[in-house]
Amino acid sequence: MPRPGFVLDVDKSTPPILFHHGEGFRLEKLPAGRSRVIYPGEPLDALDDVEAEIQDALLNPLEMDPLPSLLKPGMKLTIAFDDISLPLPPMKRPDIRQRVIEQVLDMAAAAGVDDVHLIAALALHRRMTESELREAVGDRVYDAFAPSGALYNHDAEDPDNLAFLGTTKHGEEVEINKRAAESDLLVYVNINIVSMDGGHKSTATGLASYRSIKHHHNVHTMQHSKSFMDRHNSELHHSNWRMGAVIKDAGVKVFQIETTINTDTFGQDGPMSVLAKREWEWTTRDRVSFIGMQQGLKRLSGSTRRKIFQNHRAPYGVTSVTAGAIEPVHDRTLQHCFDQHIVEVEGQTDILTMGLPYICPYNVNSVMNPILVMCLGLGYFFNMYRGKPLVREGGVLIMTHPTPWEFHPVHHPSYIDFFEQVLADSTDPKVIEEKWEKQFAEDEWYRHLYRTSYAYHGVHPFYMWYWGSHALQHLGRVIIVGGDDRAVKRLGFKSASTLQDALEMAEDVVGPDATITHYKNPPLVMADVK
Amino acid sequence: MKALRFERKAAKYAMAAVAGRLRAGSGASVGPLSLRDVDEPELPGDDWVRLQPRLAGICGSDLATIDGHSSRYFEPIVSFPFTPGHEVVGDLDDGSRAVLIPVLSCVTRGISPVCPACEAGRTNHCGRIAFGHLEPGLQSGYCESTGGGWSASMVAHSSQLLAVPEAMSDEAAVMVEPTACAVHAARRVGSYGALGTVAVIGTGTLGLLTIAALRHPTSGATVGQIVATGKYPHQKSLATSLGADRVVSPSELGRVVRSLTGAWVLGDGAGHGPATGSDGQLTDGVDLVIDCVGTEASLTQALQVVAPGGEVLVVGMPGHTSLDLTTLWHRETAIRGCYAYTRSDFEAALSVVTDADLGRLVSATYPLARYTEAIEHAASAGPRGAVKVAFDLRNSSRSSKDRS
């Protein structure tokens, strides 16, 4: 029986706490008597027979007919699947998408369906490379469909392959992949790593165009999503749900397959397994292993360290597979997510600390640039709450990360320009949105790189910044420990060389003897703040 | 009198070239420049007067000479030994102050009839700078006959003098000569009509003054947006205060111009294959780039960001430079030099200096005796937070014999 997550009150006997720090780690002693640590729950038990669970989900879907009965000869079938941004880190082969897609394809073949397309639903993310696609769908599927052009990346800027389906009552335009829209059946294969994922967002965002996505990927929406991890209190999701209704009314039939995974991120053995353990439970062997890992990493170049971490594949266990109509499927999926992630937390804190790891949704096989550091901390981690933010309004967020002034030139060209030009002008999301978004979004060069190279869309860095806009509005100060001074300053944050310095700097904002909460993630944890 | 003299000493020049490569400005301590007791230059003719420098600036071209980087092109148009210093405000014997207009044109050389360029008022294009009754020298400060500003006394032709308004400080007045260069460039820009975005590479003294001149009505330039490059915080803030709309790091210029003009990018910046990022040769760009640096790197960058059919105006003094001009040929771009000024430019420069308060750009002054420090400071002005460094000769004096 896995132990649930819990909140540890720090006292004098509490050992130093492990903080992620990019491609490295820090051990930090938190002040006793006023600090607490939110620990994730241990990985939930994985399904014993994933293949059987997939089959069962497809044959017994929620509020839809079994998949085989929906498959007819001569029909147009499209299978869309989540892209490289999920899960984090990528999972060990076989990927759950591959396992689901293979069964869907087997059923399609058995029904005589031969017009099948597979589309990576990447929205405005970068295109997946061949090896990334192979990792997601498996070699058998890739080799069967990619050579004939039936397996490809969604292109949100291809006017010939987008279909306008209508407008929501809020005036939101809905435009999605034409092939998906015109198919007799759209099967969406998802991985719900956190509660933000899935539901109508899969199709309404993953297969949409900029014209459509801009209606919910904006500052207003993000500042009114409290949080975007809590669907019922998320304007981001309200908008996607309205769009989902338009998609449905337009006659697009979606068979949604959602999956959840446990938090077995670092494995039960090997040098990284120590990262999932609670510090007071570290054995002598764990300590030696950790020290060895630390020392070894320090001797390596940054690029070698990055390569080692980026090559890590997580041995996640699959905890659920649910298929059928989007809404009932998603309700069940959310419950599985919450079962794994939720930890009840009593009240808010003055200072929230977090150690940022080496990876976020947008730097798989890439560089965690400063904008992504901001997005991971102020966007994703800050929003991992239900109820109220972990930190009080006007409080301080302290993050540890090296925050190098470094960008992947192929993946993030518009990020470089955003960092150099836009953030040099303003860090205010509203000002940035008003003054700069259109120029970047409509830049033909970025559009060309997005469509033909492996670049995120020109507007994508804006979305990263908007993702943190609720936190920016809420917080009194943001401090990055151990970051590149210049880069941190460009982000508009304060820089500190040690956690102790950061805590002293935080006192200027929240006063002395402030309460401190450390949000210990990864493995993933979500706070239910009472 | 005391004067800094630059002599023709090949071995020392070679040592300066080596030292200058190791540390900018260090050619002053090992090269052919030295502080000497010398006789005042003789008055070459009736229209010549004595000018006792009060402040004399250190210019980029002076530094190139001292550090052994100057082109051999200059050999026939300078005469040794010479006293450097062409950015000069000084006292005349009647007690008034004047700024030196250093170009040594036909009139100053006693050449009659004057050459066609001088006849047209384009004295900076004078074709007789190595002839006439003066020793060769494109300007005072490079001519043995005239002396230069880095001394207690020099001579100047009456046509080389511009009266300094009573209210103008010496610091402002010493900025008139480099500002006249900038006015000359800005007037050239003005002759092109209205321009959208202009890139200015470099925000050392010349870059800053060029920005000020572009924004001053006397230039006639109509520029929508000025994007400048600056390495150091003080350069960025000064450039902004003088009229630049955006000041970016040199490494960012290509990406900024690409963004502004909606250009695409060819190659990866190393000449390989199609671009994957945003560095490299732009497919479009700005119609005009003003290069106030003049190095191989700045010229290469200028050619990367200038639009097809556009122009690179070279205001900073270049030297012997290696450039791939294929882009110039293929994109029908032009590289145009922009040297010095006319008297009219000087007159306009007085207004620019006053209106833009350019005297504030004088960051430090030194006595002649500390010339090695002064030159090292000037050569590292950017990293040391400085702009213009000058010699202060207000407490210098000619010898009693000379005065009599």
Helix content of chain A: 25-40%
**So what's the oligomer here?**
heterodimer
Number of domains of chain B: 2
Q: What is Rg of chain B?
A: 21 Å
Which spans of chain B have pLDDT < 50 for at least 5 consecutive residues?
399-404
**What percent of residues of chain B adopt helix (DSSP H or I)?**
25-40%
Largest sheet of chain B: 7 strands, mixed
First CA to last CA of chain A: what distance?
26 Å
> Helices and strands of chain B: which structural class?
alpha/beta
Tally of individual helices of chain A: 21
Distance separating the two termini of chain B: 13 Å
Strand fraction of chain B: 15-25%
Classified in CATH, the superfamily of the largest domain in chain B is: Medium-chain alcohol dehydrogenases, catalytic domain
Biggest interface, CB < 8 A: A-B, 18 and 16 residues
- Overall body shape of chain A: globular
Could you describe the largest sheet of chain A, including whether it forms a barrel?
Answer: 7 strands, mixed
Strand fraction of chain A equals 15-25%
* Known CATH architecture of the largest domain in chain B: Alpha-Beta Complex
* Poorly predicted residue ranges of chain A: none
How confident overall, as mean pLDDT of chain A? Answer: 97
Compact summary:
With 530 residues, chain A is of the alpha/beta class. Chain A is 38% helix and 20% strand. The two termini of chain A are 26 Å apart.
